[in-house]
Amino acid sequence: MTDVLRRGRASLAFSFLVQGVAFALLVTRIPAIQDRYGVSDALLPAFLAAVPILAGVGSVTTERLVKRVRPSLLLRWSQPVVLLALLGVGAGERMVELGVALAAFGLAVGVLDASMNMLGVSLQRSYGRSIMLSFHAAYSLGGIAGASLAWVGAHWDLALWVSYLPVVAVLLPAMLVGSRWYVDDEAASAVAEKAGEGQVVVFKWLLPLCLVMTVAYIGDSTVSNWSAKYLKDVLGSSEQMATVPYNVYMVTTLLGRAIGDLGVRRFGAVSVVRGGALVAACGFAVVAVAPGAWVGMLGFTLLGLGLCVLVPQTFAAAGRLFPGASDAAVARLNVFNYVGFLIGSPLVGALGDAWSYRGAMVVPMVLVLVTLVYARSFAPQPDRYGGGHERPRTADVGRGSNGL
């Protein structure tokens, strides 16, 4: 272990945290954004859908860019765009300005998400043990901080730009300084050379991980978009209590990710993914049958503990599956983050209106259980690129002679 890797890990974790803050500040102030620009209820879904669609475009573009530009440079220059676009959302006055700011935010987020996870996968390879969950724990911490700052802005009835400006003014220079220590994994180049320059991402091998990523974000968007309405309208809670489930979900997500790497090192990625899927399915089941608000809160707590491990381990598995083309695999896999986000909220809303919201919660429960079918995709894979040997499990690498 070197100081270079330690600084690289700390700076990348800070980048995940900054992104968590920025995204939370945007999504938690959507009602204020709607009021500021006079966006109608009919038009709002189009604006909201444009962000993940453009983020998917940004992620696909990143797959091509990393052939010529290091992921660290893409991350260094996409994150300021995200922060400045957030400020633009708060400072604009006309709807066209909102559209431009959200478009810039979406495209830059796609590049940022892909490049962040590329660096996370390559750093985990350099460390020789599971650290991917710790980066996503930093994102969860940033989300909690951003949601808290948004609450302060809403409580004091601050203008959006007044809420956003101090955050951007602090985080932007701090991020630019921290980006000096990003680490592009030199070992990845050696692995790629050994695997063969012609190595490509075979989509049928990546498809199970894409499905798991989609399911994870369907579950996540269900909680973020419907937990408050479900608690208030279905379980009869007060309006104040209805705001609590998402905060509980974020806290338990943070806790689960903070200790998740230890579980991967001890039990292996397959066991952790299976356990997370089962816990998440139990959470949806508890929410669906809850007789009251407190039992419903227990269900959302279980959801945070279960879903939190799926996304980081999916990125890590893609890196192991394609060691000589991990950047391309991560960029392609990242697109299904946004696919799940686009599917989840409308799916639950449509089922809730046509059937019942209790019944709607059963659908993501079943989808999460499908993860069990694909759990073996998180195991070491036979070397399809010419070695004939299996790659070591993360848990086994962590027990190497260096004791890391």
From TrEMBL:
Residue ranges with Basic and acidic residues bias: 386-396
Taking every annotated instance into account, which residue ranges of this chain make up the domain Major facilitator superfamily (MFS) profile? 206-404
State where the protein is found: Cell membrane
Pfam family for this entry, one: MFS_1
Enumerate the transmembrane spans. Answer: 12-30, 42-61, 73-92, 98-119, 131-152, 158-179, 200-219, 246-264, 276-294, 300-322, 329-349, 355-375
User: Which residue stretches belong to region Disordered?
Assistant: 384-404
Membrane association type = Multi-pass membrane protein
UniProt keywords (A-Z) are: Membrane, Transmembrane, Transmembrane helix
Query: Mind telling me what this protein is named?
Result: MFS transporter
Q: Specify the taxonomic lineage.
A: Bacteria, Bacillati, Actinomycetota, Actinomycetes, Kitasatosporales
